[in-house]
Please model this.
Amino acid sequence: MRRYTFILFLLVLGYIQAQETKLAPSEIDMVKNGVSASALNSKTIVNTFTQLKHIDFLSNDIESKGDLYFKAPDVIKWSYTDPYEYSVIFKDKKLYINDAGKKSDVNLASNKVFKKLNDLIARSVSGDMLDDSQFTIEFYKKDNVYIAKLTPKDKTLSTMFKQIVLRFNKNDFLVSSVKLIEPSDDYTLIKFENKSVNQPIQDAVFIH
Amino acid sequence: MRYLFISIVLILSSGCKLSLVDDFTESDTWISSIHNPYFSNSELDYVYKMEVAVYGNEFSGILIVKKIEQDTHRMVFTSQFGSTFFDIEFNAEGYKINTIIDELNRKIILNTLIRDFSLLLKENDTVTGRYHNKNYNVLKAKSDKRSNYYFYTLPDAVLSKIVQTTKSKEKFEIIYDKVSENHVAESIKINHKNIKLNIELNLLKK
Model:
């Protein structure tokens, strides 16, 4: 009986270790360089995305879907198609919102917040945010991804999120998901799929 | 001159009188309590798109309401991106703010929102008067210095509107539309009468 318990213990331990392993310093440099090179090389990115909002007291996560367009260095469009049509274009340091046909330039409740958030997401889409001056960063690996766990140093950002978790594909160093964890442990998880990199995006996409 | 003064006072005072149920017939109150069913099912996640128009500014996001205990609702308003604008708990004693962004944490805005949402989530009220006409049965309830008028459409007796008033003025109304069988209103509007604040809620499909 004891032997089985011990084997079970080893199995569980093995399973935990297979979950996430902390990177060695040399690996961290390799990942940082890989991500940075990939971000530099990504002039355009087109993704579909699925967003899950997890709130502790809800029975089900709230799911949204849409398309994301990114053009270096910082033009980005989030085009939600589900549960309703809503798009945000971030360009020329302005936010252009199209809320089911209703167009606006600014967003009352969220000006500062939206900007911080959008900047954060724009940079995380391209991977260009592994910046030690703004975040305390820990690196891990698991299966076919590298994981960067960022704790914000910026006050505005840290009141919104206690941690931001980015996952990168091991093969191309592109971001496969972003998890924004709030101080309450509720989170928003954005998963990217159907990545197309450096394919031309028509200008019309970014017209408000 | 004196008559002019008296008539002005009369006109003003009659102008100030609440006219909400003027053309209604007052009748006996045959029930003592009001039950608002729209956010009362603790097994449901109520998820709405919320649009707020306040003095020419508009913003929108997702409003989530859940009855977490008897007499307690949790309400979270998030941006489309999922960041939280506010997270407030409403209970029988009042409310508790878990988080709120600075832009909304201003006394006037906050007090107004709290009052609106307290009525929106208020499940039970005590009847103090009843009125009717051919379209509506109206139940009146007193709360502090204000009154709530619950309008039920006839003949199906569906709660279609609540109006909150002071003694002399209508302050705001909540209008329910497209009500499903399990007491979920697909469309809810909150309209203010004295300030430029309108809130629109549309149920998001599951």
Q: What stands out?
A: Residues 9-15 of chain B have pLDDT under 50 and may be disordered. The longest helix of chain B spans residues 2-16. The interface with chain A takes residues 43, 45, 47, 49, 51-52, 54, 57-62, 64, 66, 68, 74, 76, 78-85, 87, 98-99, 101, 103-104, 204-206 of chain B (CB under 8 Å).
